[in-house]
């Protein structure tokens, strides 16, 4: 006997009994010792048994014992790691179920005919769902298997002979299920194949053994409980037709995965965990020898699984990558999503590996479904040695270290104290007294006054109006109580602000009214009190931010973690994530449109948070917002093209060119996108196809979906304006710009750039742009044209206030932009560097360096433009459409702009 068998034999009494039960087994074990077994190996080995005359149930049991002993030997001798053990036993479970079901189905059909769907008239097959660790492909070597039996439709069997006895489909599949359970779990002289647990089926032990799709759907909608969502995360079809499996997944997915961020799952999983822990404690008190439960005990396997699955239940509805059934794969994904750090996940995976290896070694002793350390000291030492330790104490020390890590991570996610739910102090001062929605005017006023609110009567009236609004008055008691608690938590934080207290209170109450019926958002703010503080600070800083969050409360999730909120954008990774999520939603246009909107809102909101914290300059913010728009335009073009069924090529020869703020990379939060569409394709269908592509692109961008809109699109700058074609052939665009375009269109071209689509067209556009901008121009005529266009714009935006309009008034931003455009058009023929798309500030300074304008004045106007943009940005954040300030704030800067305007564009003008 080889040393490997000797090691396994000594460590595992089950292995020793199996090996010693038949002299031939040593040879069988030696034959497969070098194999990492696959389903093909299972089939080959089973066939040898059945060809020797062995009945299938007995042959399968003998194969099961061989597989388990093979894994014990490979694991304990270091030939297999945890991955191989989990994969092999899970694949064997699939093989056993599939093989028995096929044989039993044939027997049932021979006796009763083929089950036929009443609605479809199609033959029916039973789908066996693997749940729990089997569903996740992470089964224990000595685990039972959790199964659910379902079938598509009710109906009756179709008989073909007089001997066959017709059954209803339901009775057929119930009988088939009972036979399958018996084939797998009945104990014979060879043991069993797998113990079977059916407790997770709808209505548990009191429910039917097999359920139709309709029964499953009705149960999940009407009676499905929160813990069942946790169970169904792991559900995996082991048998059945692909089309039926897809239909079942469509039924189950809305129950398991909410389309919004579901933070109510935290409370549900916390309660379930508390019940499990209470039962473990009760059992340990009754049986002191059953201690150190590595599965259900503190810091055990179940807590690692809960940590992974709470993220799945919260976010899986929005992110398909978090729907993997494997605990280990899900943990890895959490790093990619920046939801846990790489260090945290490494620690959790190390702990999970240790705990699962220990669990297996506990089961290797006697092939028993146990998760606790044995009371017998000799067995404990045997387990310790199987784990690679020389004594029990060293093993327990490492076990405790891993469990401490898991427990700490679990507490960070689930603990009541961490989530701000510690018991309130027994006594309260008047300033600490809480308000109720039943309180009247005097009680509210006293509370606000005690907190130090200014303008107490107005704030009181606002709060009363909210409490008494029909939307809040009709809330369920639980939601009203949560909302009341949130208001009481918010009031001291608002009172602590230095200014804008009443405005902040109003914005927050508007927000609360918007989310009042969305239990998930109330749960999030309850579970994460620090998020409420961030909301208050954001609403105090920006009315625009308050309104944006009120329109898109799903963005609350972005405020949870500093790590994600303050991280610099990784645009390459973001582009990959956009494409991945669009691919996952392929074929569902509305879902894809919502994916684009959700990703845009989330990324924009992170930039907004960084902006309000003062970590971004206006220029850097505009760069980021422009990069974000570029990515979304590119992704939308690709996705829309896939919806055009008669497309003649896989990749369109089509490009989007950006003008205006996007073209100049000066995009703001709410800016629309000025674009034109170009193509370069000789196919006779190209004009119609690319017109359809452009139309659908605009629809995808501008349509209102449950997630809002993506961008407003302005296409007025296309050749011939509103009367022109929606898309232009590249050659026609070149001809138009060279021979027919107005001066103002060439002005616009100074702020244009290739944005998305075919890069060859983009390169050609950039060459056309440079050629057009470098055309020699007659100075006097150009000056007159630019002045005329500026006057038209000024007349279209009259300012009747006493304040200075940063954008439209003389000496403002448009004057600066026109000056730059004029200088580029006039001098680019001699100085090609002026055609670079480097922004107005850099171009002003470049013109100064080239001696085209006074250097001091160039720098002064560049600084003025920067200041105007910053002021405009601040004003827009407060929700104002018009960016106007008191004249004295910008008088000096405005005078510099006027001086440069006069020096460049007023020569020869006597007025």
Question: What secondary-structure arrangement, pairings included, does this model have?
Answer:
Blueprint: H1 3-11, H2 13-20, H3 25-32, H4 39-51, H5 56-76, H6 82-112, E1 114-117, E2 127-130, H7 132-135, E3 145-151, E4 155-158, H8 169-185, E5 196-197, E6 210-212, H9 213-222, H10 226-232, E7 236-237, H11 242-256, H12 264-286, H13 301-315, H14 327-336, H15 342-364, H16 377-386, H17 392-414, H18 441-451, H19 456-467, H20 470-473, H21 477-495, H22 501-515, H23 519-527, H24 529-541, H25 543-551, H26 562-565, H27 571-584, H28 589-612, H29 618-642, E8 654-659, H30 660-663, E9 673-679, H31 686-702, E10 713-714, E11 727-729, H32 730-739, H33 743-749, E12 753-757, H34 759-773, H35 779-796, E13 804-805, H36 813-827, H37 840-849, H38 855-877, E14 884-885, H39 887-905
Parallel strand pairs: 3-5, 3-6, 9-10, 9-11
Antiparallel strand pairs: 1-4, 2-3, 2-7, 8-9, 8-12, 13-14
Helix pairs in contact: 1-2, 1-5, 4-5, 5-6, 6-8, 9-11, 12-13, 13-14, 13-17, 14-15, 15-17, 18-19, 19-22, 21-22, 21-23, 21-24, 22-24, 22-25, 23-24, 24-25, 27-29, 28-29, 29-31, 32-34, 35-36, 36-37, 36-39, 37-38, 38-39
